Amino acid sequence: MADISKEQVKHVANLARLAITDEEVERMTKQLADIINYAELLNELDTDNVKPTTHVLDLKNVMRKDEPREWISKEDALKNAPDQKDGQFRVPSILE
């Protein structure tokens, strides 16, 4: 595993538009190295018989089937409309 250098930490901080002090660079260099070393532990696992997954949970589509069904008539829909014209709802104009 390659070690994280102070220059790399400064470069990433610059890309993130972060102003960091030399003390913070020192601390973050060690912290990032620790994180990468911890992640390297995953390489020690035997994953030969593990199927690749795209998500850890077994997600299913929760959408209902799109089936035709009978709806209310246009007249019933417009029956309680406060304002209508030519079989359509009329609403106040929002454009000047």
UniProtKB/TrEMBL annotation:
Allows the formation of correctly charged Asn-tRNA(Asn) or Gln-tRNA(Gln) through the transamidation of misacylated Asp-tRNA(Asn) or Glu-tRNA(Gln) in organisms which lack either or both of asparaginyl-tRNA or glutaminyl-tRNA synthetases. The reaction takes place in the presence of glutamine and ATP through an activated phospho-Asp-tRNA(Asn) or phospho-Glu-tRNA(Gln). GO terms for biological process: glutaminyl-tRNAGln biosynthesis via transamidation; regulation of translational fidelity; translation. Heterotrimer of A, B and C subunits. It comes from Gracilibacillus oryzae. Residues 75-88 have a biased composition (Basic and acidic residues). Keywords: ATP-binding, Ligase, Nucleotide-binding, Protein biosynthesis, Transferase. One of its GO terms (molecular function) is glutaminyl-tRNA synthase (glutamine-hydrolyzing) activity. This is Aspartyl/glutamyl-tRNA(Asn/Gln) amidotransferase subunit C. It catalyses: L-glutamyl-tRNA(Gln) + L-glutamine + ATP + H2O = L-glutaminyl-tRNA(Gln) + L-glutamate + ADP + phosphate + H(+); L-aspartyl-tRNA(Asn) + L-glutamine + ATP + H2O = L-asparaginyl-tRNA(Asn) + L-glutamate + ADP + phosphate + 2 H(+). The keyword Phosphoprotein does not apply. Belongs to the GatC family. InterPro entries: Asp/Glu-ADT_sf_sub_c, GatC. It comes from the Bacteria. Its EC number is 6.3.5.-. Residues 75-96 are annotated as: Disordered. It holds the Pfam family GatC. PANTHER family: GLUTAMYL-TRNA(GLN) AMIDOTRANSFERASE SUBUNIT C, MITOCHONDRIAL. Transmembrane segments: none annotated. The keyword Transferase applies.
